[in-house]
Amino acid sequence: MKHLYLIGGTMGVGKTTAGKCLKAMLERSVFLDGDWCWDMNPFLVTPETKKMVLENICFLLQNFLSCPALDHVIFCWVLHQQEILEEILSRLDCRQVCVHCVSLVCTPEALRKRLEGDIRQGIRDPGVLTRSMERLPLYETLDTVKIQVSGLTPKETAERILEEAKNPEQRNRTTI
């Protein structure tokens, strides 16, 4: 059986790094970051670009799921609304796929520390701090497994995702 890991979380929580660690831990795996599907200049959020991004994401995910050489498809994106998760899943053929929906969460203090480090390094713009903090509470309402990552390394986060994947009936709870 194939596995699809949908990893959501606010900006700076560690989705990309944990997803790459997860890919390294799993044989026959592929990693897709949703941000890659609309890395454009200027960055525009319009109805047309939102539609295009969802089409890009779903096209790639379905191709990965259809590829016999792959057993694990790992996708990360902000995924802060249940409707986004449902829209993506509605476009995919998941009949022979075990889907793992995970939200990475952390304390506001841990998020601030992570983002301020990125801002100092020039990796992120200063406005991300406010936007990311505003999204943080949204993850508590999602039908996903919540993984508290405040004190975890990316490798430890990936290990927790794998632990949760072995117990899919334990949805919508926070692990410490």
UniProtKB/TrEMBL annotation:
It comes from Candidatus Blautia merdavium. This is AAA family ATPase. Pfam families: AAA_18 (PF13238). The lineage of its organism: Bacteria, Bacillati, Bacillota, Clostridia, Lachnospirales.
